[in-house]
Amino acid sequence: MTATAREEILARIRRALADVPKDEPAGMARGYLHEHGTRTAAETVDLLAENLADYRAQVHRGSEAELPAMIARLLTERGSTSVAIPEALPEAWLSELLPTVTLVPDSPELTPQRLDEVQSVISACALAIAETGTIVLDGGPGQGRRLLTLVPDHHICVVRVPDQVVTSVPRAFEHGRLSPVRPQTWIAGPSATSDIELDRVEGVHGPRKLDVILITAAA
Questions:
Q1: Residue 143 in contact with residue 156, Cβ under 8 Å?
Q2: DSSP of 13-44, one letter per residue?
Q3: Each residue of 63-117: pLDDT tens digit?
Q4: What is the pTM of this model?
Q5: CATH among 1.25.40.10, 3.40.47.10, 3.40.50.10420, 3.40.50.150 for 39-216
């Protein structure tokens, strides 16, 4: 019987590992640079804001108390009358929404087709990476399924600073901040692509509009 490509690859791996002791540690030394330079927490947040803006995200800053009004204002400015709500999103965030805004809680019945009719989504995040201007979602509380933040045309993402901000990609994986077994969505600005002539098109693989709110954690 002819071996499949998968079986052949696994057989090669087994042969390569045949002389490795079973109790040998699986880890390896990672001596590469973990971040570029030294920054204060405030400088790291500023770098995040700069790189997010460079990717054409709209960046806003405020306090915990200002967050509900900021969310309401952004939805009004975008003309959104329906917004998807992940499970465990803090209710206080929605306290100033107009009665004309319909809340669409996440549920198994919320199909891609139904979600395509929803104009905006609000979410928290797992963390944000300053050097790359990247926001990471991992399906934790207030973040929802990947589907929830990829289908609506407008995404409002709340980042608590400085608690949820790390300097670099290697730092994001330290101390168990990101679990390799959770589904992750890495966001660098509104979804966009370009053709061979470099004509930029937004909204191809996710929201065309991304508002990031950097909220100073309450003391």
A1: no
A2: HHHHTTTS-TTS-------S--SSS---HHHH
A3: 999 999 999 999 999 999 999 999 999 999 999 999 999 999 999 899 999 999 9
A4: 0.83
A5: 3.40.50.10420
